[in-house]
Amino acid sequence: MLMGMLLPEVPAVAMGEVTTGGQRFSGHAEDPRVAALLAENTWDAVVLQDNSAVPGGSNERALAESRGALAEFFAPRLVGAAAPSSPDGKAASPLVLVYGTWGHRNGCVFEEHREAYLDYRTMQRRTSAGCRAYAELLSGLPSFDGRVRFVPAGDAFLRVLELCEANGEAAAADGQSQLQDQTADDESLFSRLYAPDTFHPSRLGTYLAACVFFAAVTGKTPVGLPWRPPPSCAHDEEMLRADGSWQPREMSEGDVCTLQAAAEWASREAGLLLL
C-alpha cells in the first residue's frame, strides 16, 4: 500500500524484504538473506521490525537479544548501506525506520506473554515505549551515523480507539478502554483494524500503518491522500483461503478520513511532519 501512496511523490520505487513471520531481531541477525540484502548498498530507507511481543519487555532475555542485534549486527551494516550520493562517491547511510507496531486487540494472543500484556492498552503502551527505545539506541551508537525515525503505527491504532471512545463505540473503565463487544462480530472501526485472529492487521489496519509510513518517509501529512487500497490485502486473501466464509473488511470514505486523521495525529506527535 505504501508504494501506491508514494508513486505520485517518487516516480520509481523499488523494494526488497525479508519478512519471516514472528521473527525477532536476533533471528534476523542470523538470517543470511538479511545480511545479503543490507550489503547491496542501494537503500534510501530501511525498515526494522521486531516481533511485537518483544519490545515491551515481557521476556527480558529476548529484549536483550534484540537490543544486542541492533547494536552488533544491524548498526555496522546500516552504515554505508545507501547508494553513494556525494560527488566523492562516499557511501551514505539510509534512513532507518523503526516500526512501532500495535498491541493485540484483546491483549496478547500468545499465552507466554499474556500476563504481561493483559489488554490492548497495556500492550500498546509497552510496545511503543520499547520501539522508541530501539530508535534511541541506534541514534546513540557512535558507530552509526545515519538518521533514525520511530514510526508510530501502533500509536495511530490507539488514536483510532480514542476516537471510537469519543463517538460512543467504546466505553472507558478504570483507566483502561474496554470495547463494548470484543468478539469477532464487533464492528467498531478499531476492531475492524484487525483480522479475525485479533493481532494481524486487516486491510484497514494495513492502510493505517501505510499512512504513518508515508508521513515518516515524506514528512507530509497523509490527510487528503487520494490513493485508495484495493478491495483486499494479502492477509485478507490468506484469511479467505483459510475460511471461505470470512469476508474482508469494508472501508468507507468516512473510515478513510478517520484513519488518515489518526495517522496524522500519531505522526505529528512523533515529530515526523515537516509542516
Question: Explain this structure to me?
Answer:
With 275 residues, the chain is mainly alpha-helical. It contains 11 helices and 5 strands. A hairpin with a 2-residue loop joins strand 4 and strand 5 (176-179). The protein is globular, with a radius of gyration of 19 Å. Mean pLDDT is 87; it is low at 171-185.
Concise synopsis of the structure shown:
The protein is mostly helical and 275 residues long. The chain has 11 helices and 5 strands; from the N terminus they run αααβαβααβαββαααα.
Topology record:
Layout: H1 2-6, H2 25-29, H3 32-38, E1 45-48, H4 60-78, E2 95-99, H5 111-114, H6 120-140, E3 148-151, H7 153-166, E4 170-173, E5 176-179, H8 189-192, H9 203-218, H10 234-242, H11 253-269
Parallel strand pairs: 1-2, 2-3
Antiparallel strand pairs: 4-5
Helix pairs in contact: 7-9, 7-11, 9-11
Please tag this protein with its features:
5 strands, two-stranded antiparallel sheet, 275 residues
